[in-house]
Write a structure and sequence with these properties.
12 strands; D-isomer_2-hydroxyacid_DH; NAD(P)-bd_dom_sf; D-glycerate dehydrogenase; D-isomer_DH_CS1; globular
């Protein structure tokens, strides 16, 4: 079976594929155009897909009728038309769990960085503007005993809540499609409505899976209803927030600060005015960027393809209903 991998991944994954007797096809250069990427896909049986530059939609499946399986090198699958893949009998694998700690670490880092204006103060040092002691200049805020609101209390959200509870004694509230009984038991988390979440949170951290219906969910209307001391954290998908509205809310003091590992658009422009604000920290989507997490993702992605090649169910499948007829 011929497996196309569009970018280099850790050898722990490629070694697994080779040991399973699968043929790996690499692109001959980086930064493929859509047409180049599509041509590679047309000549493969399965794909290990890294990144979300290109969409797996109906037009893709029409153009690549020989694709039998897709293994994503990510947890999220919003760039895949899951319904269409399922209709065509194509399993789509993903990589849950192995990056939960790493991604929650970044959310936790952003929360603290914003609370203490770390990016702004680091820039001052780099630019030689350390200055004399000023008791009132660019003060941060403490997080002890504050309320952390989690939008999407799944694996990553749970890790973020647990860290915040243990480190700062934060009260945890959350909004989910379903209640998280484990979090309520172990972290004393309280399930609240979306309105209560945005109105009560001192820190609001987004960890939900993104769907097109949620595009711009965090917008001008929402930011105006948040606390003036609130910190907005997004490590999930940039599509959740409307970035121009976020800038206005921060610049006007409607909310206190923001930490982003995902942006809208992504990648964002280097001259985006939000980068000039003292109450913002932005990272270039590095949530899973640890040796441990990326190796784990490679193992899961390879394992999904290997299982498929043996006629077995993918261990981690975003559309398990594809197997219902088997």
């Amino acid at each position: 079976m011929k497996v196309f991998i569009n970018k280099k991944i850790p050898e722990t994954g490629t070694d697994m594929l080779k040991e399973a007797g699968l043929q790996i096809v690499w692109p001959d250069h980086e930064n493929l155009s859509y047409e180049e990427w599509l041509n590679y896909c047309k000549n493969a049986d399965a794909i290990v897909s890294i990144g979300a530059e290109f969409k797996y939609d109906r037009s893709f499946f029409d153009a690549c009728p020989d694709i039998k399986a897709i293994a994503l090198y990510s947890v999220g699958f919003d760039h895949v038309d899951i319904k269409e893949a399922t209709h065509r009998g194509i399993p789509v694998g993903n990589t849950p769990d192995v990056l939960s700690k790493a991604t929650s670490d970044v959310a936790f880092l952003l929360m603290q960085s914003v609370a203490r204006r770390a990016s702004y103060n680091f820039r001052k040092v780099k630019e030689g503007h350390w200055g004399a002691f000023d008791p009132l200049h660019a003060l941060g805020q403490e997080l002890y005993g504050k309320t952390l609101g989690i939008f999407g209390l799944g694996r990553i959200g749970y890790e973020m809540a647990e860290k915040s509870k243990k480190a700062f004694g934060m009260d945890i509230i959350y909004h989910n499609r379903h209640q998280n009984i484990q979090a309520e038991k172990e972290l004393d988390a309280k399930y609240v409505s979306f309105d209560q979440l945005i109105e009560r949170s001192d820190v609001l951290s987004v960890h939900a899976s993104f769907t097109p219906e949620q595009e711009g969910l965090f917008n001008d209307y929402v930011f105006k209803r948040m606390k003036s001391n609130a910190i907005f954290i997004n490590t999930a998908r940039g599509g959740f927030h409307r970035q121009t509205d976020l800038y206005d809310a921060l610049a006007d003091g409607q909310i206190w600060g923001a930490g982003l590992d995902v942006t809208n658009p992504e990648p964002m422009s280097a001259d985006d005015p939000i980068l000039e604000l003292s109450n913002v920290c932005v990272l270039p989507h590095i949530g899973s960027a640890t040796v441990e997490a990326r190796n784990g993702m490679a193992r899961l992605a390879a394992g999904n393809i290997i299982a498929f090649s043996k006629g077995e169910k993918m261990p981690y499948c975003a559309n398990p209903e594809v197997y219902s007829g088997q």
